[in-house]
Design brief:
2 helices, rod-shaped, mainly alpha
């Protein structure tokens, strides 16, 4: 059985979410459905951006605390 590090698709954001797209042409009068799907996709992407921003801020805080500890340990100042 493959581990998660051996499965390349898990690292690609497009493969995590299903797109629910069909190869069949859209029917007449389905504009409202298309708008709904686009709205849902936009909301999903906005939510993903918020999650990534929070992750980035957390990593920056971790990096700053690590650097502060490193300077204190080796140079005796903050």
């Amino acid at each position: 059985m493959k581990g998660t590090s051996e499965i390349n698709d898990l690292r690609k954001p497009r493969s995590i979410y299903s797109n629910n797209k069909s190869s069949a042409p859209s029917a007449q009068g389905s504009d409202h459905l298309d708008l709904y799907m686009l709205k849902e996709e936009r909301e999903r992407l906005e939510k993903e951006i918020k999650v990534l921003d929070k992750r980035r801020k957390d990593l920056q805080k971790h990096e700053q605390s690590r650097d502060k500890g490193w300077k204190t340990a080796f140079f005796g100042y903050q």
